[in-house]
Amino acid sequence: MNITKWRTYLVTAVSRSAGRSTPEVVAAALAGGVDVVQLRDKAATDRERYETGLRLRELTAAAGVPLLVNDRIDLAAAIDADGVHLGQTDLPVSVARERLGEGAVVGVSASTVEQAREAEAAGADYLGVGAVYGTDSKDVSGDRDGIGTERIAAVADAVDLPVIGIGGVDAGNAAPVVEAGATGVAALSAITAAEDPEAATAALRAAVTE
Amino acid sequence: MNITKWRTYLVTAVSRSAGRSTPEVVAAALAGGVDVVQLRDKAATDRERYETGLRLRELTAAAGVPLLVNDRIDLAAAIDADGVHLGQTDLPVSVARERLGEGAVVGVSASTVEQAREAEAAGADYLGVGAVYGTDSKDVSGDRDGIGTERIAAVADAVDLPVIGIGGVDAGNAAPVVEAGATGVAALSAITAAEDPEAATAALRAAVTE
Description:
The structure is a homodimer. The first copy, chain A, is α/β, with parallel strands linked by helices. Chain A has a single domain (3-209), classed as Alpha-Beta Barrel (TIM Barrel). Helices cover 40% and strands 17% of the residues of chain A. In chain A, strands 1-2-3-4-5-6-7-8 form an eight-stranded parallel β-barrel, surrounded by five helices. In chain A, α1 runs parallel beside α2 (46-63) and α1 crosses α9. Chain A is globular. Chains A and B meet through α2, α3 and α4 of A and α2, α3 and α4 of B. Chains A, B: Residues 9-191 form the Thiamine phosphate synthase/TenI domain. Chains A, B: Mg(2+) binds at residues 71, 90. Chains A, B: It is an enzyme of class 2 (transferase). Chains A, B: Belongs to the thiamine-phosphate synthase family.
């Protein structure tokens, strides 16, 4: 797995999937060429996420795509995910590393240069930085007013880690995020709520690779 | 550790502690003779619960009292707790056992005889059964209308596991819970919100042992 090649990153949100299951949306995103999937599904219970996660593990493994879990180190271990993504108020990176092993991917949300430097010092493998464009979604950690692509550039300059821009990003506005220095972009609604999640993923991919 | 000797069980709830920290309340409950402590603190972030949990581990270890963690297997492992307490929608008992080892204590919430039998079959070590007397607390899992001491008796008859009655229990109404067949009682507000948590614990203990 090479994190520096992650261009498109799906964060699942069953509450926004228009009645489709998370495995359905993930299967479509995989067909559309998504590079990495994070199981989030905040509206689901732990047991539901566990059941969903086992299915996502099958789908992503078959596609050769890494699977991460939001917040929960125990859930990541239980479904044999490749790692976790931690927010600023979650368990520390050191705990994730200890429980999941040195080979696990540990991502951290950061909204500022200071948080980014702290996460790098703590041993994070990549950063989720946002909300880039502002969002009303409670599904995005950090500053929801929109930090802008200038902040993406500042963070990318300040650390040596891959930066994934998140928050309000879609095929129409993704290019400036990678031009600012992000490795790739994460999408929730832009894929999950799309009429055609496969096409939306392909469009997002095209926007950041062309 | 002998679970069948648990008479008084504290569930922490920092939101109900009148400004006192959870370690302060736990220290007082330990001085009052509490038999087991569960870190819950639903209003806290994961990082706060981790920091609190490390302190509770010191306090409970010094007192020779077991420490459990609500819901979170990763947090239990991170603070070297003795086990976890799982609700009906949490990760399965099998996952807790696999992650924490055979020696860990795994408790499960049950409101009905059917749930109790399922938890026993899944390998639970004890059951938290309630809400015994009804409660408006969202801090209590299961049926909040009050299942009554008859249900405690039915569950205690149906399974071989220790039963801890929870929900609206205080020193004034605890005796009928153990008379119905519960090993002990769990308290949230009756200890945490008390003016003197040490005296409240001692009073609860007296009510269930005399």
